[in-house]
């Protein structure tokens, strides 16, 4: 079925085209950046810009308590203290074959001092003790702060 063209539709299309042509001619041939820049310049000139006064920055005030009061701020932060008996590397195949009663050999010798770690950082060595039916550790050697920093690098 062939569509018949509506003569009124053709007249509307021509009228719309004439409106667009008139609008484009009002915008000018450049229709571009110069007009936009002029509009922005006019808008900016209407604004009343005032300078802002900023306070001068200074070093934070030091509490009268000195260093001791600074340490008080961190004294209640919880950390994880752990003791490492030893470790080893095994293949996943061997790991999957472990059952109850299996023995895993560690890299430490019997009687060798254990590592004491705080949040994963070595801070001391010690030996296992039993206190009131619970395990504990007696520190035998504390790692110096300079040594801890050297090990981090």
Automatic annotation (TrEMBL):
GO terms for biological process: bacterial-type flagellum-dependent cell motility; chemotaxis. Its main location: membrane. GO terms for molecular function: cytoskeletal motor activity. Keywords: Bacterial flagellum, Cell membrane, Cell projection, Chemotaxis, Cilium, Flagellar rotation, Flagellum, Membrane. InterPro entries: FliN, FliN-like_C, FliN/MopA/SpaO, FliN_T3SS_HrcQb, SpoA-like_sf. It is found in: Cell membrane; Bacterial flagellum basal body. Residues 73-143 form the Flagellar motor switch protein FliN-like C-terminal domain. It is a peripheral membrane protein. Residues 1-17 have a biased composition (Acidic residues). GO terms for cellular component: bacterial-type flagellum basal body; plasma membrane. It comes from the Bacteria. Residues 1-56 are annotated as: Disordered. Signal peptide: none annotated. Pfam families: FliMN_C (PF01052). Belongs to the FliN/MopA/SpaO family. FliN is one of three proteins (FliG, FliN, FliM) that form the rotor-mounted switch complex (C ring), located at the base of the basal body. This complex interacts with the CheY and CheZ chemotaxis proteins, in addition to contacting components of the motor that determine the direction of flagellar rotation. PANTHER family: FLAGELLAR MOTOR SWITCH PROTEIN FLIN (PTHR43484:SF1), PTHR43484. This is Flagellar motor switch protein FliN. The lineage of its organism: Bacteria, Pseudomonadati, Pseudomonadota, Gammaproteobacteria, Oceanospirillales.
């Amino acid at each position: 079925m062939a569509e018949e063209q509506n003569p009124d539709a053709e007249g509307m299309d021509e009228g719309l085209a004439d409106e667009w042509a008139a609008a484009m001619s009002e915008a000018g041939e450049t229709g571009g950046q110069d007009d936009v820049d002029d509009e922005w310049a006019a808008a900016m000139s209407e604004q009343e810009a005032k300078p802002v006064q900023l306070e001068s920055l200074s070093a934070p005030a030091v509490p009268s308590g000195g260093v001791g009061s600074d340490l008080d701020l961190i004294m209640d932060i919880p950390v994880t203290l752990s003791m490492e008996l030893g470790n080893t590397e095994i293949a996943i195949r061997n790991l999957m074959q472990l059952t109850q009663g299996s023995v895993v050999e560690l890299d430490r010798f019997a009687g060798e001092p254990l590592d004491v770690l705080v949040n994963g950082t070595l801070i001391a060595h010690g030996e296992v003790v039993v206190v009131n039916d619970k395990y504990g550790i007696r520190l035998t050697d504390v790692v110096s702060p300079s040594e801890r920093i050297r090990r981090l690098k």
